[in-house]
Amino acid sequence: MTRIGFIGLGVMGYPMAGHLAAAGHEVRVHNRTTAKAEAWLGDHGGTLAASPREAAEGADIVMTIVGNDDDVRSVVFGDDGALGTMAESTVLIDHTTASADLARELHQRCHQVGVGFIDAPVSGGQAGAENGALTVMCGGDTEVFDRVAPVVDAYAVAVTLVGPAGSGQLTKMVNQLCIAGLVQGLSEGLHLGMKAGLDMDVVVDVISKGAAGSWQMANRGSTMTRGEFDFGFAVDWMRKDLGIALTEGDRLGARLPVAALVDQFYAQVQARGHNRWDTSSLIDLLTNP
Fold it and tell me: Hey, which of 73, 80, 105, 135 would disulfide with 53, CB 3.0 to 4.6 Å?
């Protein structure tokens, strides 16, 4: 049993913390909205912390999954931040999709007080979190990673150390760039097939068995052709992630023209008021111009 302080019970954090409790760990949760934390306690037991600082007190591992860089800084470094009560040799794991610069900052600040740090963004969406089947991309020191990987396994299908601090976040950027281009290509292909009057269920079934097959096609192909988007990974979140990747691309001198274009397509979906639609909603710009 590991004592865990878990901060952030959104659509991802809520089930992730639940898997930790189900695995027998002692979980103390904090969420900005207390009602959400109380609901989690009703589902999973554990204890409630009034602040990130309280969540971290006495914990072996503190996990955060919040909105963005500023949110992470607030729950870690703020007046009631978690780092203030973390003891030496404990570990902070940040599952937030954030910048690589923030990950390096967290690593440095944690190292100064003898705390281990792993940046560990996840992929797999809400369904992956609920099913305990997330892919976790990690950056940090090998010794720290080896200590915490068995705990992270509670909600993961793969937990991989990619490199030093920041490598997890950089890998997540690569992941999101690949998804963005794929979803636009899938949208255009399905749109053409629909315009041609093809039976798209048959088409998706056929081409998914070949080189065009992908997770997006298998899990979103049929819903895209039906115009169903009220679920999944929200457009708002994808735009946040693409913004991080595009900023990093500018810093590194990496040309990302397709990502920049798809980011603007997502901006059009937002302008239509569909901020919470799934990222597969790119096809709506084609079917409903």
Answer: 80
CATH class held by domain 170-287: mainly alpha
Helix H or strand E segment including 107: helix 100-112
Predicted TM-score (pTM) of this structure: 0.95
Task: Evaluate whether 77 touches 20 at the Cβ level (below 8 Å).
Answer: no
| Residue 211: Cβ-neighbour burial (10 angstroms; 0-12, 13-18, 19+) | exposed
- Which residue's entry shows tokens 């940040």? 94
Residue 150 sits at φ, ψ, to 5 deg, of -60, -30
Domain spanning 3-163, CATH architecture: 3-Layer(aba) Sandwich (3.40)
| 57 close to 80: Cβ distance less than 8 angstroms | no
For the chain, state the CA radius of gyration: 20
Residue-level pLDDT at 80: 96
pLDDT for 225-253, tens place per residue? 999 999 989 999 999 999 999 999 999 99
Locate the domains of the chain by residue range.
3-163, 170-287
Active site residues: 172
